[in-house]
Amino acid sequence: QNVLLKVENLQKHFPVKGGIFGNKTINQVKAVEGVSFEVKQGETFGIVGESGCGKSTTGRTILRLLEPTSGNIYFQGVNIAEVNKTEMRKLRKDIQIVFQDPFSSLNPRMRVKDIIEEPLINFDVKDRSEREKRVHEIAEQVGLTVDQLSRFPHEFSGGQRQRIGLARALITKPKLIIADEPVSALDVSIQSQVLNLMKDLQKEFGLTYIFISHDLSVVKHLCDRIGVMYLGKMVEVAEKNQMYDEPLHPYSKALLSAHPSSHPLKKKNRIILKGDVPSPSNPPSGCTFHPRCSSCMDICKTEAPSLQTVRDQHDVSCHLYTEVNKDQEYLYE
Ligand code: SF4
Ligand code: MG
């Protein structure tokens, strides 16, 4: 499988005005702090984590809706982090985003057909009948009727509005869609309809998805591989079933312990984490998870672990799995 997107050591820091923690003065929040991952052609890559972990910021930075502080974002070999505005505009045709709240992202004064058509105008499709044809095609594919196209967004339910959002995102025939909590605002009964639609559209159009969510059941439904984020860092990346059945990082273990295993023999005990997520403006030293980790060792308080491949297609950022510890385990056997 070809790699469509490769994110390398991405950082996004936001300036803040004079926050003070103890005797430290803080002038930036490290929302994304050295995130690396790859997304393969045709797959759905899930990014999960609690709110404030940097998952949405990562998604927006890939699209340059937020400017990256540093790092590389290769899309089909082009470094998105370095392109100019004109080049970025062209790339936006290939990478689209779908937001959590479709209502706030749809202009209330525009008719649905104009909302869906707008990207085509932005991308210079001059022929009006061609645009209209494309709008009708895509509307049909997302399950909107011709009659609905002349209505306004407020006349639709949340699920239907997300269909409109998908139609608008798909009309430029993108290769990659970044979906940021696309069903989180919807009733559970509607969620699966929209998720199934996204699956069908993926097949139909050969789409690649980055699916951002805090909801593990939603992620499980759709994703092929999953990356877990904690305090601006990617702490574990694995194929979906590996992640759900045998998570390695202590944070992933806790996060996923609330979710039943798909494997009947691999029973999980619910792990309740101590403490709250620390502020990203003043993250703990060493491994930023260490104050909450029941496996914390001395090295964890001073040295940050890096993401390393420990099994086939399974990366984890934790000192429990570094070479030093592997040797120790071996000695004790
Ligand atoms: Fe826990 Fe140490 Fe691993 Fe961090 S590096 S998750 S503190 S064991
Ligand atoms: Mg978010």
TrEMBL record:
One of its GO terms (molecular function) is ATP binding. Keywords: ATP-binding, Nucleotide-binding, Transport. Pfam families: ABC_tran, oligo_HPY. SMART domains: AAA (SM00382). InterPro entries: AAA+_ATPase, ABC_transp_ATP-bind, ABC_transporter-like_ATP-bd, ABC_transporter-like_CS, Oligopep_ABC_C, P-loop_NTPase. Residues 5-256 form the ABC transporter domain. GO terms for biological process: peptide transport; transmembrane transport. The keyword NADP does not apply. Belongs to the ABC transporter superfamily. NCBIfam families: oligo_HPY, PRK11308.1. This is Peptide ABC transporter ATPase.
